[in-house]
Amino acid sequence: MKIVRLEDFGKGLNLASGPLDPAYAIDALDVTYGRAIRTRPGFAALTALSRAYTHLHPFRTASGTKTLLAARSGNTDAINTSGAAAYTTAKTFVGATSFAAPGAECAYLGNGSDTVFKFTGTAFSSPAGMPKAKYLCVQSPDNRLVATGFAAGANGPGGSTVTESTVHFSDELAPETWTANSYVQLTPGDGEKIQGCVAWRDMVFVFKESKFFVFNGNTVDSAGLPRFNRREVNGAGLVAPKAIATAPEGVYFLAKDGIYLTNGGNPQQVLRQEMGPVFENTAPPFFTSGVVTQSQIANAAATYHGGRLYVSLSMGGESFNNRTIVFDPPAGWWSVYSLAGPDLVEWSPGDKLELIVALPSDSMDLVRHHAGEIDDNGVPIPAFSRQAWVDLQSQVSLREIHLWGNGRITASAAVDYDPDSGIGQTVSLGTPPDLWDGTTWGGGTWGPSETNYNPANLRGFGARGKIFSITFLGGGTIPLKLEQASCTFLGGRDQE
């Protein structure tokens, strides 16, 4: 008899070839990891406007008014916390930033065709003399508006001539005043376009396709003009303008071959062996989400929320963003969510920060993803995790799986590298008695407690082989929460 204990699920997805600790998963969808496997939080509708939004930007005034700016074809809506479009302008945006100066706070928005326009919290306007830029951020501590992503021609401030490699800086504390010489050219003639920009701490990062530039502090030249100090960093560039996210540890960005992190120095690949195969087209046959659709990768989007990185992109050949790769840097685990769309941002329509996602359909425009939701707008989340293969060295039979958890769980056993998840048994472990408060903010229900797990024994699998992979599938109205499992095998050598 051999007993294999699964007591720690904290390692998450790992798609590398070769032997793995069964604490890893080789396939998963819609779960989080830790000591336990849990169904991800669900979502509820924020808006019901039947509008397909493509770009999002959160904005908040000093007085506390919160607005989500949402771009769609030819228009931008200012969504209030009730999910209504309180203000609309007949311009769209692809890049935006919030700007604050004493007595003057607003959001600036650009699309590369119109001059940069702004939103004050109560109105849209188009200040005179602004550049026709796509990408915007704010440089600290000078508090300058940074504008880039130009089409070559008379598209700079006041109609000045720019190239696709130009970056313009406004005057200090004056985002609508542009001195003629306050610009730089970043490796013009290299055949690459600027893909985006972002501010992190006192640095500004401007990305091209194979490299990026870090601006860190301005000085004054002999003529008294500002000098915008910068350095070029090679090794990786940005493949999707929306796929940049700032975090306490630095700036995450998506390149063609994976996800990178930089804090101003050389970029570091964070996918490593665990998720690298989805970009290298070497994912194992057991991984059902498929590899990244490279023809659609330019539409990817990223944000950082609740200590986790979320990268929404197309996988498995889809023509739209249908999956979100999730990374928990402190814990080190990866997962994949079916919650995905053209853009996603962190915003707080209620008392807490939530993940707001623009779905890839106008049937439900924007949704709010947070711990208060136990399903996806009333639809159960079919979460599952398939653990890595365990080699038992000789022919054995699976006698039983003992579980500790909550919810309706199906445990399945596959043998000898069969891509199919195998023969399964289902048990309902119930809901723990201590719900957190019933209905609360967001109109949802707090999920079940993470303690008070219930036990169950599952038998009758009929699975026989040398190598086993166990899949845990959730279902029904109670989210999957699996704290621990142990598998008992009979036959072969006595290895207990």
What is this structure's SSE topology?
Layout: E1 2-6, E2 12-13, E3 24-29, E4 31-32, E5 37-39, E6 43-45, E7 55-60, E8 66-72, E9 75-79, E10 85-89, E11 95-101, E12 104-110, E13 117-119, E14 124-125, E15 135-139, E16 144-148, E17 166-169, E18 183-185, E19 196-200, E20 203-207, E21 211-220, E22 226-234, E23 244-247, E24 250-255, E25 258-262, E26 268-269, H1 272-275, H2 277-280, E27 301-305, E28 308-313, E29 323-328, E30 333-337, E31 343-347, E32 354-358, E33 366-369, E34 384-387, E35 390-406, E36 408-415, E37 423-428, E38 454-459, E39 464-475, E40 481-490
Parallel strand pairs: 2-3
Antiparallel strand pairs: 1-40, 3-34, 4-5, 5-40, 6-33, 7-8, 8-9, 9-10, 11-12, 12-13, 13-14, 15-16, 16-17, 17-18, 19-20, 20-21, 21-22, 23-24, 24-25, 25-26, 27-28, 28-29, 29-30, 31-32, 32-33, 34-39, 35-38, 35-39, 35-40, 36-37, 36-39
Quick structural gist:
A hairpin with a 5-residue loop joins strand 25 and strand 26 (268-269). The protein contains 2 helices and 40 strands.
Give the fraction of residues assigned to helices.
Answer: under 10%
Low-confidence stretches: 432-450
Q: What is the overall silhouette? A: elongated
| CATH overall fold name of the largest domain | Methylamine Dehydrogenase, Chain H
Q: Class by helix and strand content?
A: mainly beta
> End-to-end span in angstroms?
6 Å
User: Got a strand count?
Assistant: 40
Provide a count of the helices. Answer: 2
Give the percentage of residues in beta strands: over 45%
CATH architecture of the largest domain: 7 Propeller
Radius of gyration: 25 Å
At the first level of CATH, the class of the largest domain is Mainly Beta
Estimate nothing, just give the exact number of structural domains.
2
